[in-house]
Amino acid sequence: MAAIIYTLTGIILYVAADWLLRRLEERAGRVFGNRTLIFFGILLSMALVAFAIIRSVVGT
C-alpha cells in the first residue's frame, strides 16, 4: 500500500512542479534558461517534504 501512495504522490508532485514552473515563467515573462535544473529543484524540495509527511503518517 505504501508503494502505491508514494507512486501517486510522485505523479501529483511532478504535475504540480510543472504547473508551478510554468506560472513562474509566465510571471517573469520569459522561459528560464536552466529550466530543467529549476524544475528539479522544485520537484526535489516538494518531494522531500511530502515523503517525510507520508513517512510520519503511514509509518514506513
Count of domains: 1
User: Which parts are unreliable, with pLDDT below 50 for 5 consecutive residues or more?
Assistant: none
Helix content: over 70%
Q: What is the terminal separation in angstroms?
A: 10 Å
Shape: elongated
Q: What is the percentage of strand-forming residues? A: under 5%
State the total count of DSSP E strands.
0
The largest sheet, given as strand count, sense and whether it forms a barrel, is: none
Number of helices: 2
Mean pLDDT: 93
Rg is 14 Å
- Helix and strand run: HH
Give the oligomeric state. single chain
Structural class: mainly alpha
Fold topology:
Layout: H1 2-28, H2 35-58
Helix pairs in contact: 1-2
Explain what this protein looks like in three dimensions.
With 60 residues, the chain is mainly α. The protein has one domain (2-58). The protein has helices spanning 2-28, 35-58. It starts with a helix and ends with a helix. The model has no long low-confidence stretch (mean pLDDT 93).
Describe the structure using short key phrases.
mainly alpha, 85% helix, 60 residues, 0% strand
Structure in a nutshell:
The protein is mainly alpha-helical and 60 residues long. The chain has two helices and no strands.
